[in-house]
Design goal:
The protein has 94 residues and is of the alpha+beta class. The chain has one domain: 3-Layer(aba) Sandwich (name from scop), CATH 3.40.1690. It contains 3 helices and 2 strands. Strands 1-2 form a two-stranded antiparallel ribbon. Strand 1 and strand 2 form a beta hairpin. The longest helix has 15 residues. The chain is globular. The termini are far apart.
Length: 94
């Protein structure tokens, strides 16, 4: 038997919150649409199927659990680096 994994996409919101929260999630075709919309809006996309699987189990608006902090921190540090930002820069109002 061959089982096909479904494609999952999860968006996190961070900066104005004390810890990242799940702001959107989708599977299969809807996940493709979510990824396309993210790219069109300049949102950086990391590919980590195992992390996406864990995050997809959370409810919208739910903070990520402590056991996922390190994995999410790695991705967030990558995004900050790509944007030339440092943590806290998002809180500065121009």
């Amino acid at each position: 038997m061959i089982m096909r994994r479904s494609l999952k996409a999860v968006a996190l919101e961070y900066g104005q919150n004390t810890s990242p929260i799940v702001s959107a999630k989708a599977e299969d075709e809807a996940a493709l649409s979510l990824l396309q919309a993210a790219r069109e809006h300049g949102v950086h996309v990391a590919q980590d199927p195992q992390l996406a699987e864990w995050l997809s189990r959370l409810e919208l608006g739910q903070e990520i659990p402590e056991h996922l902090y390190t994995a999410v921190a790695v991705i967030l540090s990558w995004v900050y680096w790509l944007k030339g930002m440092q943590p806290g820069d998002e809180k500065i109002v121009s």
